[in-house]
Amino acid sequence: MSILELDVDGQPVTREALVQGLQEDLAREYQAIIQYVIFSQKLDGARYQEIAQILEGHAHEELDHAIAVARQLDYFGAYPVHQPAAVTVSEDNDLMLWADLDAEDVTIVEYRKRIRQAQALGEYALAETLQEIIKQEQDHQIELATALGIVPDPRGRKEKSPLKK
Q1: Residue 48 falls within a domain, yes or no?
Q2: CATH code for the domain in which residue 58 is found
Q3: DSSP alpha helix (H) spans, 2-48
Q4: Residue 38 lies inside a defined structural domain of this protein
Q5: Which burial class, exposed, middle or buried, applies to 5 when counting CB atoms under 10 A from its CB (0-12, 13-18, 19+)?
């Protein structure tokens, strides 16, 4: 195990930690696909028609992200995880959007960590791939927050997720 530095959580930056993080990222991509597919079809009412169509597009983009992350895992000799992170479901339109926004918030934080890990290990192609993914994730975050009428960046957001205790 070669340690180049510590990550933001004080953990050693290793190839093994990077692969484990990518596995968790992939599980979150699966979660996003499932939630976006369900919510894009379940959102109802005139106010939600535009965002429902947008979420359908997000599902396709998340699949592309999952494939890209799985490709990187294969590159590192790891078998991609097959279980999604915990999926949140709701019948309430706003709670559906909050569930997706909460997931995007976590995903963005985790991809920022993964980019730093990749750079520390000299895996610049991976860092670049993840930077492209994070651009789309932030677009998703902006669209969801806009639909909810709140600030996209959680660091400046006054509203707290009703799904978080």
Answers
A1: yes
A2: 1.20.1260.10
A3: 15-42
A4: yes
A5: exposed
Query: Does a structural domain hold residue 44?
Result: yes
| CB-side neighbour CA atoms (13 Å) of 43 | 26
Residue 37: domain span: 15-152
Give residue for tokens 């927050």.
Answer: 145
Report how far residue 29's alpha carbon sits from residue 62's, in angstroms, rounded to the nearest whole number: 6
DSSP 84: P
Quick: pLDDT tens for 54-68: 999 999 999 999 999
Q: Which amino acid makes up residue 130?
A: L
Query: What's the structural domain count of the chain?
Result: 1
Q: What tokens appear for 20 in the block?
A: 């484990």
pTM greater than the 0.90 cutoff? yes
> Per the structure block, which two tokens stand in for 4?
């180049």
